[in-house]
Amino acid sequence: MKREERQQLFDTAKQWVLEAGENIRTAIDEPLRIDTKSNANDLVTHMDQQTEKFFTEKIRREFPDHSILSEEGYGDNLDSDKGVIWIIDPIDGTMNFVHQKRNFAISIGIYQDGVGEIGLIYNVMDDVLYAARRGEGAYRNEKKLPQLKQELPLEEAILILNNFWTCPNHKIEETKMQSLVRKVRGTRSYGSAALELAYVAEGIADCYLTMKLAPWDIAGGMVLVNEVGGLTTKADGSPINILEQNTLLSCNGDIQEELVGEYIELK
Ligand code: IPD
Ligand code: CA
Ligand code: CA
Ligand code: CA
């Protein structure tokens, strides 16, 4: 994608994200219609659906040749990464949205032929926008984010990890996860994959490891982390397929090597 095209697309997407966020903030104290999806803890509200529709209607009108991959069913069924694809999570952290009315984000990644061109993650209630364009750095609001520290001993690292992966599970060897938890300086869990990736990009956490995420959870964040010199791969270090569910490891190259070599044992 040419720089000028990317810039124009970025300006439009950013304006829509801020507008969608404003709509959510305005409605934050109104009663929610809450449904469940795959299980009793997999929540969806009418605001998730309404926000996704807000984007899909605008994209189809303004960019009829672009495709959409999104969580709540208003997007397209895609089997190829060719062309321009908007990968959208209208509310990432729906459980936080429902229970806390904060700590959730709108996440958008815009990819062309599989390459991440634009990443936008908007912490709606804090009014903080993380934004990146390929080759042009990543920002937290107006502030450009520095490159990640490339040498950081694990003993000094903050690891974002859901406690679930230290309990017996069918994806990853939990005893190794327990020794990793003992090794690092501390662990955190924020309940929004998009914000968790933004925090890695910002350098306020050093690594995010998880076993199951969808394209819309990670598409925006991957662009951000790339722009500050970080790596985002599957948990075994192999490349991510952005159209599929993935395990995920996002951090600097040093930490990635150590975790893949010594701590991550997939079942
Ligand atoms: C979820 C959040 C959560 C992660 C889940 C995701 P949603 O997204 O990102 O942090 O652990 O795997 O499904 O459903 O709130 O958009
Ligand atoms: Ca969901
Ligand atoms: Ca999500
Ligand atoms: Ca969501």
Automatic annotation (TrEMBL):
Catalysis performed (reactions): a myo-inositol phosphate + H2O = myo-inositol + phosphate
Catalytic activity, EC: 3.1.3.25
InterPro entries: Inositol_monoP_metal-BS (IPR020583), Inositol_monophosphatase-like (IPR000760), Inositol_monophosphatase_CS (IPR020550)
Keyword set, alphabetical order: Hydrolase, Magnesium, Metal-binding
The species this protein was found in: Sediminibacillus dalangtanensis
Protein name: inositol-phosphate phosphatase
Top-level taxon of the source organism: Bacteria
Presence of keyword Magnesium: yes
Listed Gene3D superfamilies: 3.40.190.80, Fructose-1,6-Bisphosphatase, subunit A, domain 1
